[in-house]
Design the sequence.
């Protein structure tokens, strides 16, 4: 068995823990938009996407084993990239509609920050780093970043509720930059790792596309990236929207 060929014995409690956590996260997000924000289309989209991701991760071997054998794995690699891109493309087109933009900006910034607590699933990367004989240092980086982001999400959300997004703006911006780096760095390394330059396949990153880690990559990561993008590009608009709410 390859060092990063993920099996129940290698993943331990995370073999079932990750799919369960992603499922709970999906249900929590959908319930929020059904019962609190009353946006059924967005809730239905999240539920549908969660089902697609869980099914694809479990049923479709995106990569075979722990290496980047492009001749064997290219269909799965293409599929993984398509699946990853679907939420990003869907959000881009939805964002073009003024009503959707207005709705998103009306969502509580504290609530949007809170959902990052689900990135505790990334503790699986730390588990791999600490338990495997030949650890991959990308797992250390991603694991540390995910644990920091997930454990600080709720305290930061509480702080934003307490002082307001305007007063917390600088802290929130820095936190989102940190969180975005957690997602950008490993994805920037994927093509180099795949082609055998910079970060060689000896330390293969193909495990990111194996079940159950694929659940994190295909569900948590694109939605977290959208969340970070919103805060980093629309923070002033969020502050303005919240100031309007205070006056009404």
Sequence:
């Amino acid at each position: 068995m390859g060092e990063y060929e993920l099996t129940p014995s290698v993943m331990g409690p995370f073999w079932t823990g990750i799919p369960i956590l992603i499922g709970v996260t999906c249900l929590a997000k959908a319930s929020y938009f059904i019962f609190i924000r009353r946006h059924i289309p967005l809730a239905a989209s999240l539920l549908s996407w969660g089902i697609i991701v869980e099914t694809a991760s479990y049923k479709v071997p995106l990569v075979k084993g722990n290496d980047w054998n492009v001749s064997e794995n290219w269909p799965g690699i293409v599929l993984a990239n398509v699946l990853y891109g679907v939420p990003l493309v869907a959000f881009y087109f939805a964002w073009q509609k003024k009503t959707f933009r207005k709705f998103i900006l009306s969502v509580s910034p504290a609530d949007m920050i809170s959902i990052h607590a689900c990135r505790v699933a990334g503790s699986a990367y730390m588990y791999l780093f600490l338990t495997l004989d030949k650890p991959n240092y990308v797992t250390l980086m991603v694991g540390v970043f995910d644990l920091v982001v997930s454990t600080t999400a709720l305290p930061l959300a509480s702080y934003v509720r307490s002082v307001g997004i305007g007063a917390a703006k600088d802290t929130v911006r820095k936190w989102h930059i940190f969180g975005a780096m957690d997602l950008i760095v490993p994805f920037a390394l994927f093509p180099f790792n795949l082609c055998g330059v910079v970060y060689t396949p000896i330390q293969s990153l193909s495990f990111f596309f194996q079940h159950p880690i694929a659940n994190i990559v295909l569900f948590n990561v694109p939605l977290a990236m959208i969340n970070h993008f919103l805060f980093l590009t629309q923070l002033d608009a969020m502050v303005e929207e919240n100031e309007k709410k205070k006056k009404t």
In short: The two ends are 62 Å apart (CA to CA). The first helix runs from residue 8 to 11.
